[in-house]
Amino acid sequence: MDSQNYTANLRLGQYYLLRGNYPEANKYLSVSFNNYPSDYESNLSYGWTQYYIGNKKRAKELFFNTLMLSPNDSLATIGYNLSR
What we know:
Number of strands: 0
Helix content: over 70%
Mean pLDDT: 97
Strand content: under 5%
Radius of gyration: 12 Å
């Protein structure tokens, strides 16, 4: 696998996020986000990962980014409010 591949890193990160393996999710989603920092899915998934590993300040920033891209996104709104 190409270590910088957007889709592979995003989907693997989301897989681990859904499984509750936040360190692995963080590993893959950080690559996806760093390569595409204005991407909706990267911001949302990486935001939830940061929230679950206890980095609420960073999570809030990522949820804010997501809301800038999709103002009515319910998952980003919930995450933003939880991260306050």
